């Protein structure tokens, strides 16, 4: 009999990659959740044979219904959906930093996912997409890396739940290769007079930064975590040497990307270079479980950059 994986966030980068990996695997059925089952992306997954159901991370009843009969659940929350939502700016407390509000909401949503997964008797593995606890591992130096700490605290919460702790593993996604050039950031390569390209970025050009081809590799990483014993903290990354670029300090990066975005992104890089992107807990790396990751060279060879050239 087929097993069932339920994928909240299937219309996104991580969930989509997980779904593609499982759709190629014999013996698995895939159910995806979305806030809008009529959206174009929901229809595309339906056409690929995925059972699409409506669920909202804010609504625990919708999650419990969506998770029924699951053998595996892949959980991911999206800090940036909350950040971009105009309603968030209305709902946050008057003096509250928007990024702190997003931290509170993302943590609450991740707890809803964990509480719902804990109620599913058929569940064998819950894999949650986490990040390092930046406040803890930087000893308070980076105490406002809210998109990281929210996910780290969600791990602590999941591990506190009887019925879930022994089925739980986490996976940390490194920075997506497409983020610096597809997200409209200052890191988008700019053509110079001499025909070369330069990017504006933060941090030391000498320190490697962990990257990931989220579309090609993340799904097989999650599959590997599912197949391994529980209790894993898997770091889905392929280090890339930083190289030469127009290096700016954090204050300048924040000016270029105002509203909290520049600080979250900029401090994320600084934290990674000073304390390690994945934090201080022991992690399992792809090569230890025989997972081959797309190199930066291969990513570049296989990617159409014409939009920015
Ligand atoms: N970009 C990077 O380099 C990077 C690196 C490491 C970690 N991350 C983390 O990855 C996370 C985002 O994952 P992603 O890149 O896969 O996201 P994404 O591509 O932006 O997709 C977001 C997904 O979340 C779903 N979603 C958002 N809010 C929801 C809600 N209230 N209820 C139900 N579903 C909701 C969306 O579904 P519908 O719209 O269909 O409802 C969509 O499938 C972020 O938290 C980020 O911090 C990113």
UniProtKB/TrEMBL annotation:
Domain NmrA-like as annotated: residue spans: 1-228
NADP recorded as keyword: yes
Pfam families: NmrA
Keyword Oxidoreductase: yes
Molecular function in Gene Ontology: oxidoreductase activity
Membrane spanning residue stretches: none
Keywords: NADP, Oxidoreductase
SUPFAM superfamilies from the UniProt entry: NAD(P)-binding Rossmann-fold domains
Highest taxon in the source lineage: Eukaryota
PANTHER family for this protein: NITROGEN METABOLITE REPRESSION PROTEIN NMRA FAMILY MEMBER, NMRA-LIKE DOMAIN-CONTAINING PROTEIN
Similarity field: Belongs to the NmrA-type oxidoreductase family.
Protein name: NmrA-like domain-containing protein
Annotated organism of origin: Penicillium daleae
